[in-house]
């Protein structure tokens, strides 16, 4: 039955959404630790602390739900959902094999980027409803950063869509060839850097860094709502890594058995890109607000436009 | 002329190399840590060397050494000499809740009755048990390590004939210098 198939696909997306971010989170703990010459979690679960994030989840779930007295209650309570759910919806459109998507949309790229932008509203809601002037400041800074980096993100994705001739994510993967790596390379880098900034990951974590502003818009959050914001960060890493893989690295394409193992190739590429996200976090110092904005407007936007010009020339000439 | 972005790539190389090297972390409760030589853990007392001169109690910045003593007379060995007096140690206690591990007591003791030991596992649930009396302080003595080997090519210790005079003379008072600058 069709309804059963739909439910099964949605459950599959939910399962991926709940487990892969935890894998990335554990990888972050261990990789970051070893890059800093220490060990990371070793105790939880016995073998090299594999159950650390599970223990964290249980800990957050059993905490008291605190809403500041002067906070805007409804908005405060809804903000984590608004920040988290967009990433779940994007997962639905990501192809894991030839023709294997939970729901392939003919406007896939457009949908994915638009829905991810809704997450910005969640951050602004969290900052403004917290009745804390530093949260508000953090929320505004995050909003400015996310607005600035939307443009290079969209332009780079547009270049990939132009090269493929379709907005559908599965179509883009089908059209991908190995020589797209140099051809769309600039767009890939611009998309990846803009995605890092969208996720507020270091070195773009100025709105949420604890030495800057405690935790920015999320300062007043505790317990499960806090855990959901953290899950949103890692789910975002997974989603943007998957999007980068799909748009610029050939998604489910691999050396062999693409129809059966397409999901494996996509998972490997996503994990490799998540590792790069963690690697960049450990290596680079934080960008200041003005340096960050400069990078977006004076660095990434012209690069993305140049890439679009190149793509346009190749499409018209070829 | 350096390539733009060269520093960024070098940074990535550093972190990747750190990741591939084994971490030096020692997981303490499961593994005894490798302490460096001359580690300061606890102070041990060699009772037979102590003459109760009270220098350590006096010099301790925290006043955490508690010493009680009394004088005893010992008959003279020779004819006609007066009876000798000796200090006898009654109580020697160090209050580790106050001790700041500066080591001044050990440095100042003229008779080498106090020693550093690297033992550090003596935490208690109550401050009362953090005062170690003379029997417990003597029990720490077997844990005192031998002095570490001399640094190669170093000057011998002053008591062994080392310690040359500093350049320009030692305690000569410089009266004709010191023009205010």
Description:
The complex is a heterodimer of chains A (318) and B (181). Chain A is mainly alpha-helical. Chain A has one domain (2-317). Helices cover 71% and strands 0% of the residues of chain A. Chain A contains 12 helices and no strands. Chain A has helices at residues 2-35, 52-61, 73-91, 108-129, 133-164, 169-175, 180-183, 185-198, 210-213, 223-248, 258-283, 289-317. In chain A, α1 crosses α10 (223-248), α5 (133-164) crosses α6 (169-175) and α5 packs parallel to α12. The longest helix of chain A has 34 residues, at 2-35. In chain B, the strands form 2 sheets. Chain B has a 3-stranded antiparallel β-sheet. Chain B has a domain at 32-145: 2-Layer Sandwich (Alpha-Beta Plaits), CATH 3.30.70. The longest helix of chain B has 15 residues, at 6-20. Chain B has 181 residues and is an alpha+beta fold. Chain B has helices spanning 6-20, 55-59, 104-108, 134-139; strands at 42-45, 65-74, 84-95, 114-117, 131-132. Classes of the chains: A mainly alpha (318), B alpha+beta (181). The A-B interface holds A 31, 33-39, 42, 279-280, 282-284 and B 8, 11-12, 14-16, 18-19, 21, 23-25, 27.
Q: How would the blueprint of this fold be written?
A:
The complex is a heterodimer of chains A (318) and B (181).
Chain A: H1 2-35, H2 52-61, H3 73-91, H4 108-129, H5 133-164, H6 169-175, H7 180-183, H8 185-198, H9 210-213, H10 223-248, H11 258-283, H12 289-317
Helix pairs in contact in A: 1-10, 1-11, 2-10, 3-4, 3-10, 4-5, 5-6, 5-8, 5-12, 8-10, 8-12, 10-11
Chain B: H1 6-20, E1 42-45, H2 55-59, E2 65-74, E3 84-95, H3 104-108, E4 114-117, E5 131-132, H4 134-139
Antiparallel strand pairs in B: 1-4, 2-3, 3-5
Task: Give the gist of this structure.
The complex is a heterodimer of chains A (318) and B (181). Chain A has helices spanning 2-35, 52-61, 73-91, 108-129, 133-164, 169-175, 180-183, 185-198, 210-213, 223-248, 258-283, 289-317.
């Amino acid at each position: 039955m069709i309804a059963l198939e739909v439910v099964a696909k949605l459950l599959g997306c939910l399962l991926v959404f709940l487990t892969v971010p935890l894998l990335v989170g554990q990888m972050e703990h261990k990789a970051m630790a070893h890059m800093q010459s220490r060990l990371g979690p070793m105790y939880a679960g016995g073998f090299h602390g594999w159950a650390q994030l599970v223990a964290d989840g249980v800990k957050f779930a059993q905490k008291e739900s605190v809403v500041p007295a002067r906070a805007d209650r409804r908005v405060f309570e809804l903000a984590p959902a608004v920040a988290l759910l967009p990433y779940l919806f994007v997962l639905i459109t990501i192809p894991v094999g030839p023709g294997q998507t939970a729901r392939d949309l003919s406007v896939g790229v457009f949908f994915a980027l638009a829905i991810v932008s809704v997450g910005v509203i969640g951050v602004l809601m969290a900052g403004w409803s917290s009745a804390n002037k530093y949260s508000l400041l953090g929320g505004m800074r995050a909003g400015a950063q996310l607005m600035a980096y939307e443009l290079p993100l969209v332009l780079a994705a547009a270049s990939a869509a132009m090269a493929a001739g379709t907005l559908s994510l599965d179509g883009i993967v089908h059209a991908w060839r190995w020589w797209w790596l140099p051809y769309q390379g600039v767009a890939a880098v611009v998309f990846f850097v803009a995605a890092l900034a969208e996720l507020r990951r270091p070195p773009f974590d100025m709105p949420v860094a604890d030495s800057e502003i405690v935790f920015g818009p999320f300062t007043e959050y505790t317990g499960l709502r806090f855990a959901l914001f953290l899950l949103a960060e890692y789910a975002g890493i997974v989603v943007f890594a998957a999007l980068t893989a799909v748009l610029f690295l050939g998604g489910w394409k691999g050396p062999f058995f693409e129809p059966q193992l397409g999901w494996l190739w996509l998972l490997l590429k996503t994990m490799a890109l998540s590792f790069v996200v963690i690697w960049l976090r450990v290596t680079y110092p934080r960008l200041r607000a003005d340096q960050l904005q400069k990078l977006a407007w004076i660095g990434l936007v012209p690069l993305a436009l140049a890439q679009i010009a190149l793509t346009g020339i190749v499409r018209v000439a070829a | 002329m350096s390539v733009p972005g060269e520093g960024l790539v070098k940074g990535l190389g550093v972190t990747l190399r750190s990741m591939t090297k084994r971490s030096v972390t020692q997981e303490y409760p499961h593994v005894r840590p490798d302490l460096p030589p001359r580690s300061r853990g606890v102070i041990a007392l060699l009772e037979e060397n102590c003459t109760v001169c009270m220098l350590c109690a006096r010099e301790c910045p925290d006043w955490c050494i508690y010493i009680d003593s009394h004088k005893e007379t010992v008959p003279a060995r020779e004819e006609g000499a007066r009876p000798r007096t000796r200090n006898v140690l009654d109580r020697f206690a160090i209050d580790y809740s106050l001790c700041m591990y500066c080591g001044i007591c050990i440095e100042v003791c003229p008779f080498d009755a106090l020693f550093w030991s690297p033992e550090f596992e003596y935490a208690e649930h109550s401050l009362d048990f953090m005062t170690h009396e003379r029997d417990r302080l003597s029990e720490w003595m077997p844990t005192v390590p031998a002095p570490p080997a001399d640094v190669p090519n170093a000057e011998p210790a002053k008591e062994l004939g080392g310690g040359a005079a500093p350049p320009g003379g030692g305690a000569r008072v410089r009266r004709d210098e010191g023009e205010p600058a």
